[in-house]
Specification:
- The chain has 145 residues and is mainly α.
- The chain has one domain (11-120): Winged helix-like DNA-binding domain superfamily/Winged helix DNA-binding domain (Arc Repressor Mutant, subunit A, Orthogonal Bundle).
- It has six helices and two strands; from the N terminus they run ααααββαα.
- It has helices at 15-34, 41-51, 58-65, 69-81, 103-123, 129-144; strands at residues 85-89, 97-101.
- Strands 1-2 form a two-stranded antiparallel sheet.
- Helix 1 packs across helix 5 and helix 3 packs across helix 4.
- The longest helix has 21 residues, at 103-123.
- The chain starts with 14 loop residues before the first helix and ends with a helix.
- Residues 12-144 form the HTH marR-type domain.
- It comes from Duganella callida.
- InterPro entries: HTH_MarR-typ, WH-like_DNA-bd_sf, WH_DNA-bd_sf.
- This is MarR family transcriptional regulator.
């Protein structure tokens, strides 16, 4: 089924604008919650992905977080300079670089894990348990379409 067409499409009321606004709102609130860590929400994704063993190379992170490789390189440079992570040559393939969190990076994982749920829970406070599950289901369906 097609929900939009040339006659009824209004950017101001489209699902695209709503998703964009929701993302920007969540990013601002997450940035405020982690500001004292000297990182932003994009860095948070990298740090948590490494900390939770969801990825360990720049390419895996780029794909998972849907960030272009140039921006990923710049963010990794900054996090390396802040001693949050380090690049380590792969022993299996010297052309490949693996990423590892430093002790400081691992401490950041713990701090983020304590703060991020509060930001998300504040946004979800008016959802019932079934609404929350349905919201998750619908978002995944939208992403996978």
């Amino acid at each position: 089924m097609k929900y939009y067409n040339a006659e009824n499409y209004d950017p101001a009321s489209s699902i695209g604008l709503s998703l964009s606004r929701a993302r920007n709102l969540l990013a601002r609130e997450m940035d405020a919650a982690i500001r004292d860590l000297d990182i932003n929400h994009q860095h948070l994704g990298i740090i948590m992905a490494l900390g939770r063993k969801m990825a360990d190379t720049p390419l895996e992170l780029s794909r998972m977080l849907e960030i272009d490789t140039g921006l990923m390189t710049r963010m990794l440079d900054r996090l390396e300079k802040q001693e949050v992570l380090q690049r380590v040559r792969s022993v299996d393939d010297r052309r490949s670089v693996n990423l590892q969190l430093t002790r400081h990076g691992k401490q950041m994982v713990e701090k983020i894990a304590q703060r991020a749920p509060d930001v998300l829970n504040a946004r979800l406070k008016d959802f019932s348990a079934s609404e929350f599950r349905e919201f998750q289901r619908l978002l995944l369906k939208f992403i996978d379409a």
